Task: structure prediction
Amino acid sequence: ATAVFYDKSKPIYNQNNRLVGYLTKDLGEVKFNNFPAFKRQFHVRLRQGNSFVDSLAGIRYHLPLRPMMNLGENINISLTSNNNILFQSTINIPEEITGQVEKIVDQSNNLRGINLTWNGNNSGKIEIIIGGFIPQNISPLPLLRIKVNDDGKFILPKNIIDQVPYQNFESLVFSFIRRIEKSEQSNSLSDNYIAAQSIHNIKFSINN
Result:
């Protein structure tokens, strides 16, 4: 479980003057189901010339969910400062998502698409992010983001695959994300968006 409080008055722009995020705020102590979260560094990836660097943008609050909480159950989130409760809410944890990635090829072994499957539950939509691994970087670079129905299957057609410069990367990573979102209309914070999500990452190579 992770909580991040963005400072919308302090935007972060890349070298092309494109908004990539915001600095974050340290507001006090965050608890998930009464378990205190740990403060960790929060980074934003920025391009510098032909390479990418992780720039420190503040802090995030993080707590491993298991074994303290079960997917599919409710989780209580609270934020306190100097023993004053600034924010408190409850959100459901989504069912765990697990996926598979397979190439679709013709009789000549030419790529025709990619078959994506997962344990769909028809709960709305899921997000699939395709990222590329560069040998000197620990985390992948996001390349493509799509939203599809949570019905357990989607074929990524070749014309979309061709938009991804996969030849420039050591491998790709497909991230399946099932998310539950909630808006709070009455709280003492300017932030009113809460999300809980389950993520399954699959490392995959198209070239092999």
